[in-house]
Amino acid sequence: MAWSYVKMSMFGTTAAYSNDDKIMAAVVVLTQTPRKRPWGGSVPGHKTYKRDRIVADWQLNQDYFVERPLYNKEHFTRRYNL
Fold first, then answer.
1. How far apart are CA 16 and CA 1, in angstroms?
2. Are 36 and 42 in contact (CB under 8 A)?
3. Which domain does 72 fall in, by range?
């Protein structure tokens, strides 16, 4: 509506009723629709924690996968839902 008024005031009434109205309406709609965030990734505003994953992996192997493990097979399957 406002674009039609601008076109009529600048270029006369014949320019206001051309096909440009549909194009401008499409441009306005496309520029005002919010963009979807990509799926996955970190959440804005959330804090990230540095976990020592190498040490945690080593500790898991020491607890369960050595010759004399600290925990038995039943503990492992219950803990990790296997």
1. 10
2. no
3. 52-82
Kindly state whether residue 7 falls inside one of the protein's structural domains: no
Q: What is the pLDDT along the chain (82 residues), one digit of tens a residue?
A: 566 666 666 666 555 556 777 777 777 777 777 776 666 667 777 787 888 999 999 998 999 888 988 888 888 898 888 7
pTM of the model as a whole: 0.40
- Whether 16 contacts 6, CB under 8 Å: no
Alpha-carbon span 82 to 73, nearest angstrom: 10
Burial class (CB in 10 A: 0-12, 13-18, 19+), 14: exposed
